[in-house]
UniProtKB/TrEMBL annotation:
<dbReference type="InterPro" id="IPR036409">
    <property type="entry name" value="Aldolase_II/adducin_N_sf"/>
</dbReference>
<dbReference type="GO" id="GO:0005829">
    <property type="term" value="C:cytosol"/>
</dbReference>
<protein>
    <submittedName>
        <fullName>L-fuculose phosphate aldolase</fullName>
    </submittedName>
</protein>
<dbReference type="InterPro" id="IPR050197">
    <property type="entry name" value="Aldolase_class_II_sugar_metab"/>
</dbReference>
<keyword id="KW-0479">Metal-binding</keyword>
<keyword id="KW-0456">Lyase</keyword>
<dbReference type="GO" id="GO:0016832">
    <property type="term" value="F:aldehyde-lyase activity"/>
</dbReference>
<dbReference type="GO" id="GO:0046872">
    <property type="term" value="F:metal ion binding"/>
</dbReference>
<dbReference type="Pfam" id="PF00596">
    <property type="entry name" value="Aldolase_II"/>
</dbReference>
<feature type="domain" description="Class II aldolase/adducin N-terminal">
    <location>
        <begin position="11"/>
        <end position="185"/>
    </location>
</feature>
<dbReference type="InterPro" id="IPR001303">
    <property type="entry name" value="Aldolase_II/adducin_N"/>
</dbReference>
<dbReference type="GO" id="GO:0019323">
    <property type="term" value="P:pentose catabolic process"/>
</dbReference>
């Protein structure tokens, strides 16, 4: 199957941005999306309502930080650029100010092994990065550290980031992370959840490698 053309990717970005807000994963003009393309990546523009976007509003970024198009890129372009530059398996990046993930991030609290589905983010926990001013190189460095060996992280006093082989995969994981954040937040209202042992989390990580529908066998 051939890769989607660039127009289709731009349209998918707009649809995903609108879906983020419609599902409550994001609010207003906050958050941003990127998709890898040849020679760089496509990025949502800064400070625009997702409902008003058209394909031409997506910004085509190069890895050196330069860009083309009639819109200014998201202020968080460094995070997207640095993730895509260091993680060749990633094709889509989603950043959102989701309610529960951000609430935990404001407490500088990672999501621990309170539920086995935490492993869907790639490890035994979902880390929270250190804080830095939005749009800075320092923030990008902090996020990269929190994402080591992971597909998602919280961002201190800011929001969350989710990665995927595709933008659709990043969105699916972001919904999962926000659901886990909501569960953890609610559990904390009663007490400290019982955490699963590292051995169990490693066992689950291994099981998820073959989880779900497998390709049909011939014959």
């Amino acid at each position: 199957m051939s890769a989607p053309n660039e127009l289709a990717l731009r349209e998918e970005m707009i649809a995903t941005g609108r879906r983020m807000n419609a599902t409550g994963l994001n609010q207003g003009t906050s958050g941003n999306l990127s998709v890898r393309v040849e020679g760089g990546f496509l990025l949502t523009p800064t400070g625009m309502d997702y409902d008003t976007l058209v394909p031409g509003d997506m910004v085509r970024m190069r890895m050196d930080g330069s860009y083309e198009g009639h819109r200014e890129p998201s202020s968080e372009w460094r995070i997207h650029r640095d993730i895509l530059a260091t993680r060749p398996e990633v094709g889509g990046v989603l950043h959102a100010h989701s309610m529960f993930s951000t609430s935990l991030a404001c407490l500088r609290r990672p999501i621990p092994a309170f539920h086995y589905m935490v492993t869907r983010a790639g490890g035994e926990d979902i880390r929270c990065s250190d804080y830095a001013t939005f749009g800075t190189e320092e923030l990008s460095r902090h996020v990269l550290v929190a994402l080591e060996g992971r597909l998602a992280c919280l961002m201190a006093n800011h929001g969350m980031v989710a990665l995927g082989a595709t933008l659709a995969g990043a969105f699916k994981l972001a919904v999962e992370v926000e659901t886990l954040a909501a569960m953890y937040w609610r559990a904390l209202q009663v007490g400290e959840p019982v955490l699963l042992e590292p051995e169990e989390m490693r066992r689950v990580l291994e099981k998820f490698k073959t989880y779900g529908q497998q390709p049909a066998r011939g014959g």
